[in-house]
Amino acid sequence: MRDIAAPASHKSWLWKKILRVFWRVIAFLPDEPFVKLKYLSLSGRFPNLYNPRPFTEKLQVRKLHDRNPLFGTMVDKHGAKALIAERAGPQYVIDTYWAGRDPREVDWSTIPLPAVVKPTHGSGTGVFLHDRAGIDAFLDSNIASRWLSDTHHQINREWAYSQVDPQIIVERMLVDSSDAPDDYRFFVFSGKIALIELRLRRNGIVYESYFTASWTRIPVATGYYPEYPGEVPRPAKLDEMFCVARKLAGDIDFMRVDLYCPGDKVFVGELTLYPGGGFAGASPDEFEKTLGDLLQLDCAPPTVRSLDVPSMVGVLAAE
Asked: Is this model's pTM higher than 0.85 or not?
């Protein structure tokens, strides 16, 4: 039983531990002061939520104020599949073997392996199942119960995830040359693809690279993963992936469409509304302003400050 997440190595173990403690301390705060302090802890500055300019600042405003009723469906790992089939076509949907709340009810003898099992209301969480031993380890761990009780939307105050009915989903595991397929992440702004983030595994190491829409490589990185040192040829199915990404994003102000292309077929992985929770690492720092200019929010930033963060810092210091 292998976890679906690819661990990043951008910070030391001690610093990550300090950050987690700090986030637990501030977890009681309302959404706005919480995101301001978490943003500060990761970027070294407070976000301007009243006149946002960089990409990550605008994502914070979006989390706090955009209540598009479709957002919950888009981030739902199960519910999004109907939307994907409707907008792009059923051929782009990854096969679902089972969805429910108790994986002990699954007739696992009918599940083709390898498979992926994950919660529908989270992001970057799940496990790969390769054999019966992996299935047994998954069931014995009782991790599914913890997933269902997890309030994922509270971690980064991502409203859309609060609109999802928590379930467990078992779906086909995509494999390319016996490894996880490359992950193409298209940043789509009001129908325009501005940036492509590529996550790829080679010899057990996760790399990242960035490209323009014309597949020109950009020599920058977020620091979460090392930049891939080799050449990355233009994917044969890139034009098809462009078409799928645009159809799925529609005219929404921003969506990151994550696609896989094992072999010669394109599949949709996730529809992402708040990359990285909108914090540091959501995009390369060099493109914060450029992407921020492209993101014309459908929701207006607030004009009145609801809570003063410096005063909240004083409250925390007094406790």
From this structure: yes
